[in-house]
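anyone else get weird line breaks when pasting these?? whatever heres mine. first is seq + tokens for prot A
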Amino acid sequence: MTGAPSSCADLRIALFSGNYNYVRDGANQALNRLVGYLLRQGAAVRVYAPVVEEPAFPPTGDLVGVPSFAIPTRAEYRIPLGLFGRVKADLAAFAPNVVHVSSPDPAAHRAVSWARGHGLPVLASVHTRFETYLRYYNLAALEPVMVAMLRRFYRRCDALVAPSESMAQVLREQRMNYDIDIWSRGVDREIFHPGRRDMAWRQGLGVADDEVVIGFFSRLVMEKGLDVFSDAIDELNRRGVKHRVLVVGDGPAREWFAGRLPQALFTGFLGGGELARAVASMDVLFFPSVTETFGNVTLEAMACRLPVVVSEATGSESLVDHGRSGRMIRPGAIRQFADALQGYVENPALRAEHGAAGEARSLDFSWDRINQTVADTYLRLIRQRASRG
């Protein structure tokens, strides 16, 4: 390739991920969608990430396995190590013109060093607020240390992409980097829409048509706010507010969550149309997580015409219009969460009004337009690097 790149077809992207497809989550589904889009535009993409014998779903594009080890307390997740032997040789043979890192792990650190040594630009995508995870493992005192470590990593990159303007502002305030574009998230409207609502399916779970279902769907891990969810449901029960709880998802905290909410309905993991049917068959989403940088769960619920009750946190602030499409509550404010939920349970007209507003907002999120933003950022960084000689 000669001259400055002008289109996706000129791109050769080395993408490093700590979890590309071995456990399903919102971040890696966004990465796979991005790779699929880039490949359709003619770009060359090579993905470097840990691999396992039975991944959650097939990878999009070419995936090169990176040596890794299981996290001792969370064995389903793996930490990719540095660039060794065959991986480094494969990277050199691929000859990328831009490197994309998506998690601040050892392999990504080495990839940044490799790129800088070869005069290549590096883009980092921010998918989660890693520093907030420490709060759920009684390690909140170490949060400043984690922030400092993240700052060192992200400031070695040429630019960042964040999934929401609220998250970008947090990154600026933390002095992570000052070149930050928005790589938002989209919603598949062919899958998530109000027409998926299925009263017969609800009845099969033992839910009466006149019962109001408070729903939760996500990977079941403590950092999704399961404790806050449970406490708020307890408060509704103390008030005598009639409702049903429907939990969709699986994960290491499922047993804890089921023990905390013995009357709740647990479906286990659902995907695709089955997930959309379950979401559309809820009446309100309650998702108190503060670790999200965007809130795919919130957007998918909004697309299904559900009012949402969420924490005032990065991601949600860019999606939810408080008092119009849902309620945003101060993190951990149990009584206020319960107040918001009670309002929706007892007022069907309010549920309908806020659900319709949320669905209208969800129409703004087109995957192709969103992913082109990342491609444009790659091209800009390559041109800027070339102009500096």
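and prot B, same format (seq, then tokens)
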Amino acid sequence: MRTAIENQDIICLSTVDWDPIWTRKQQIISRLPLSNRILYVEPPISLLSPFKNKACWKKWPLWWKGLRQWRENIYLYSPPVIAPFGNIYRQVNRLNQAWLAPFIRRAARRLNFREPLLWTYLPNSADIVGRLGEKLVIYDCVDEHSAYSGFRPETVWDMEKSLLEKADIVFTTAEGLYEKRKPFCREIHLIPNAADVDHFQKSVLETTPLAPELKGLPHPVIGFVGVIQDWIDLDLIADLAAARPGWSFVLVGPAGPGVDLKRLHSLPNVHLLGRRNKEVLPSYFKGFDICLNAFRLNRLTATVSPLKFYEYLASGKPVVSVPLPAVEPFADVVEIARTPAEFLKKIEQALTLETPERRKLRLKRAQENSWEQRVAEIMEKIAPKL
């Protein structure tokens, strides 16, 4: 029986641009066999997006550039702008998807695509299914999209249910996502997130240099790596930093639009370094004593499979995390805390109890959760349908 995806044309509708921040989408797509040809469609911006986030202005003219080749078999495409409020009013989304479809078809025709696989991460793509000449629809559900701020939950869930019913196969990253969507699917599988293990394990190598910004910082160094979005518990981090002024708190990653960093900026032992290329991240992990997995506990994070958690494991560093359902199965290798007082206690405990054996155990668990393993599992489920 076929267990790999070979010689296929694939249209991937993603929720994130290809660069600069890599997520599950890029990790999976980039690991598919080279015999496949992939059109990676970046998310369109709305007419209002640049007024909410100035960084979106640079995306405004991108669609005029057409296809951009990233690798011999992967092409990137940024579609034209769309009308706002598509995640609030279903009819607006229908118009948006009808508008986008011919542009995406044209890009696929330029690559001579024939009967592509439609691999989507967007609930609103329910209204583009059937318009791209696809022979198979794959939906990879990575978040509770209806819980996003600024979206109308009823509209987003209505679109997602429609997509679930149309999809030939569905994947989810967390148990909560799986259970909610299972009644609406023909076939569904739970495939959690993972890490680029080989890359992040470089942090344990003697040949990996220490990031220059970390040299001379007082220890312990408590580190966070990732995009700082509104679901990251910045109050928790600020409380910890205020309670332990002799510790260094280092946050590596860009802040999302609207995220308030004023309190963190006011604390002298908090170091906000901004975005760093993924290639150099092991140099930052190398200087951490503890990795902090600090999410707000809400409806969105209850169903999240945090990428950064798996990357923390792969770095070999001790991890202290909030009690996310996706993290609790790793309680044998990480510390779990709920309140600032518990976090302080668990951090001190992790520092005191750290041994080479505990690090080896974390690295072993990370190896069991690599992207190579996840992609093999996903292909094994899809291949028999081709």
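btw re prot B: The radius of gyration is 21 Å. The chain has a mean pLDDT of 95.
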